[in-house]
Amino acid sequence: MNDKEKLAAAPEEKIPVLLSITGRNRAMEDGEETDSIKLMTTGTLRKKDDGYLLDYEETDPESGSRQQILLTMKGGRVAMQRKGDYGTTMVFEKDRRFEGFYRTPYGDLRMGVYATRVYWKVERGQGVVELQYQLDMQGHFSAVHDLSLRFAQNG
Fold first, then answer.
1. Nearest Cα residue to 34 out of 24, 48, 19, 47
2. Does pTM top 0.90 for this prediction?
3. Which residues of 84-93 are buried (b: 16+ CB within 10 A; e: fewer)?
4. Is the separation of the CB atoms in 93 and 113 below 8 Å?
5. Closest to 113 in 3D by CA, of 98, 131, 94, 95
6. What is the 3-class SS of the chain, one letter each residue?
7. Nearest residue to 123 via CA among 15, 20, 34
8. Is the pLDDT of residue 65 over 90?
9. pLDDT, tens only, 96-128
10. How far is CA 101 from CA 28, 90, 111, 140, in A?
């Protein structure tokens, strides 16, 4: 079975993938990059009738804490569920605002996300997700975030 046939297989079949994740944060005032991350990890890709699910685990290099991430890609929308001590759900749709909460061990924070770029594509065992969004916490601007995930079938 080739890659294309595997992705066209039964909707709940989990395809192992290798992910490369790059994230950058910029303060709006000066546009300077304030923080960036690069991460390699493994995960699984599942085809659904109307999109894809990408499941992976992030490990914070400083604290060693782990978080399970589930991306749901469907139409022009990407939803991210982050489980763990610092959990949240974010929905990215271009030119739309999403409001939710960022859960911490110390209490919940109100969070707003306004997406300016939402792009994803999956084909032949590989794919990309690119997000650009403004984030505010407790009603105050935090930063502009660029998030890029590239993944390819592993094995």
1. 24
2. no
3. eeeebbbbbb
4. no
5. 98
6. CCHHHHHCCCCCCEEEEEEEEEEEEECCCCCCEEEEEEEEEEEEEEEECCEEEEEEEEECCCCCCEEEEEEEEECCEEEEEEECCCEEEEEEEECCEEEEEEEECCEEEEEEEEEEEEEEEEECCEEEEEEEEEEEECCEEEEEEEEEEEEEECC
7. 15
8. no
9. 999 999 998 899 999 999 999 999 999 988 999
10. 22, 9, 5, 14
Residue entry with tokens 């592993």:
154
Q: What's the rounded Cα separation, in Å, for the pair 98 and 120?
A: 19
Letter for the amino acid at 112?
A: G
Provide the pLDDT confidence category of residue 69 given band limits of 50, 70 and 90. Answer: very high
Q: Residue 16: which of 151, 119, 148, 147 has the closest Cα? A: 151
Give the Cα separation of 37 and 139 in Å (integer). Answer: 25
Amino acid code (one letter) for 110: R
Instruction: Tell me the β-bridge partners of 26.
Output: 33, 144
Q: Tokens representing 133?
A: 């969004």
